[in-house]
Specification:
binds cytidine-5'-monophosphate, alpha/beta, three-stranded antiparallel β-sheet, Rossmann fold, five-stranded parallel β-sheet
């Protein structure tokens, strides 16, 4: 489907709701760059752990943030992130340790402010389909293309188990929804899609259909 660029598509939702898979497909269909904003929080969490800093030691985390360089780029239509000189791979970003600490790091307002800046930079350079928790509510509140992909807790737990990933998603969701700084919320004007009983093709078709209607 050809669309007039630039365009920003925001896709939010809880952990393991299927939003990454959907966002990647939608980006490919629209010819946009796919950006996984959770990867940025994961990358910085990995860097905090690499530097032997306790994630609960907010002062040290913020101090590290101040002397850390992020390079957010793009390769084959997918956003890439380099932190402190290391190009992140899925292995580092999806480790059990990172899964366990990322929500604590993401609840620090200074960390959010910095990474939201990086996320907006992407959209200033190119058309994006960005997925996360606050993309429609905080990062790009002015975009008309907002989606919230949900699924039942049972389905989401089962999806993670099937991936063989050790991830306490209920715990992350609790922290992500209750934090003070940009909690996970459904943006007022977002289209909510429950993917519990839908295949990826169906969810992608609904998202694309809704974008087409509003163009
Ligand atoms: O999307 P993913 O599950 O990889 O995100 C990992 C974590 O990063 C989330 O649990 C949340 O704590 C944080 N996050 C966030 N805001 C975003 C994206 C992710 O706080 N926009």
């Amino acid at each position: 489907m050809s669309v007039e660029h630039p365009i920003i598509v925001a896709i939010d939702g809880p952990a393991a709701s299927g939003k990454s898979t959907v966002a990647k497909r939608v980006a490919a269909e629209l010819g946009c760059v796919f950006v996984n904003s959770g990867g940025m929080y994961r990358a910085f969490t990995w860097w905090v752990l690499q530097n032997d800093i306790e994630p609960s030691d907010t002062v040290s985390v913020i101090e590290l943030l101040g002397r850390t360089e992020f390079l957010c780029g793009e390769e084959d239509g997918v956003g890439t992130i380099t932190v402190g000189g290391t190009r992140m791979t899925r292995k580092e970003m999806a480790s059990t340790q990172v899964n366990g600490q990322v929500s604590m790091i993401a609840s620090i307002p200074e960390v959010r402010e910095r990474l939201v800046g990086e996320q907006r930079l992407y959209a200033s350079r190119t058309s994006v389909v960005m997925e996360g928790r606050d993309i429609g509510s905080v990062v790009f509140p002015e975009t008309p293309f907002k989606f919230y992909i949900d699924a039942s807790p049972e389905v989401r737990e089962a999806r993670r188990r099937a991936e063989g990933i050790d991830d306490a998603i209920a715990e992350r969701d609790k922290i992500d929804s209750s934090r003070k700084a940009s909690p996970l919320v459904i943006a007022e004007d977002a289209l909510v899609i429950d993917s519990s009983d839908l295949g990826v093709d169906e969810v992608v078709a609904r998202v694309i259909g809704s974008i087409r209607e509003r163009l």
